[in-house]
Amino acid sequence: MPSVLIVDDLLSIHEMLEAVIQPTGYLTAFATDGAAGLMRYKEEKFDVVLADIDMKPVDGITLLKQLKEYDANAAVIIMTAYASTESAIQALKFGAFDYLQKPFRVDELIGTLKRGIEYREYQVNRAESNGSVIKSADLESRLVGRGAKIVKLRGQIQRLAGARTPVLLQGQPGTGRETIAEILHESVAEDGAQFVRIDCSLSSEESFVRGLLGENGVGGEWVNKATGGTLLLEKLEALPLIMQKELVSVLRNNAHRFRLICTTDDDLELRTDEGTFHDELFYRVASLPVTVPSLQQRIEDLAEIIRSILSSCANPHFDAKLIEFSPDAMQVLSAYPWPGNVLELSQVVTQIAVTTDTRMVGIELLPEKLKIAGAWTPLALYLAEQRRRYIGKVLRACHGNRTAAAQALGIPEAELD
What we know:
It is a single chain. By secondary structure, the protein is α/β, with parallel strands linked by helices. It has helices at about 10-20, 35-45, 60-70, 85-95, 105-130, 135-140, 150-160, 175-190, 205-215, 220-225, 240-255, 270-275, 280-285, 300-310, 325-335, 340-355, 370, 380-395, 400-410, and strands at about 5, 25-30, 50, 75-80, 100, 165-170, 195-200, 230-235, 260-265, 290, 325, 360. The strands form 3 sheets. It has a 5-stranded parallel β-sheet with strand order 2-1-3-4-5, with helices on both faces. The chain has a 5-stranded parallel β-sheet with strand order 7-8-9-6-10. A two-stranded parallel sheet has the order 11-12. Helix 1 links the parallel strand 1 (about 5) and strand 2. Helix 2 (about 35-45) packs parallel to helix 3 (about 60-70) and helix 4 runs parallel beside helix 13 (about 280-285). The model has no long low-confidence stretch (mean pLDDT about 90).
């Protein structure tokens, strides 16, 4: 029988929860504060922990942190007062499986316990089987390069393989985020499971309702198609705010039926601080954030990426793999900022490869946009972007307090916008 450790400093809560939970087929055990709860968990191990957030001397958040440090697969559900949603979201940030707001319904409690136990079983089984390991050669062929940033990225992807935990892929368009999503899908998908890809910037509210929510908000056609596989939501920042809130409910009801991967071009943490992105959705999708470096950030990989692109090109005169770029041409390619990243580079190299009648490509065969000064980002725009990012960092450090951030930056509060 699955076991539940209930940690609450009120004995009346123990009695009430025992009367509700045990008849549904769960074993229950109790502790009256976080310290006692941690000790009992270490002694016996439980399938799921149900802990109150407001306890003394060791509260629920502290217990959560200690449990996750001791057992990364611990499934912890936090109970919180109705008015303390902010604390519940903080719990998600520190790795809680879910939370329950008091007073909660019996069906809500039992449903959340059931999903928490399924989560732990999946995580434990994966750990015992060492997860799904992606072959290094496959990763290196699809995420090309030997620089420090791409090596670090491949390591992150390897560690994320085989789990159904949501992943947030941050970075610029054209960096290969879709390829990473496909790799992660292949590492966890069941036989015949689908990779469902949705661009939030191109979908209507009606499509979101039908595809994400379905009837009664329990999951629509996109969610059903992704069962056992992956749902990729691209440009998540474009999802309307009202839909962001509804998506939270869908994720709670469908936890671990599929893997959710999201991409964003924006700073969602900053938008969360500003109140323009749903905070609970952010902490649910951003538990495993991965920043995909731009091509400009890993320009040392340029030559190897070009060779990889050439290997898949077709030239009517000779094998495209024999094409080389002159030192002068490589200097121009290295100096160009590549706003479209690897995707733009692929388009440029492919166009040259299929049309050239010479194996050595010089500057004269490069597109004009690569050679003119106007291809560079104007200094004013570059500095404005750096300023925006720096203000965002200070705002986050000040936990969204605009007055404190303005004082720290030495600028009027109005200039934070």
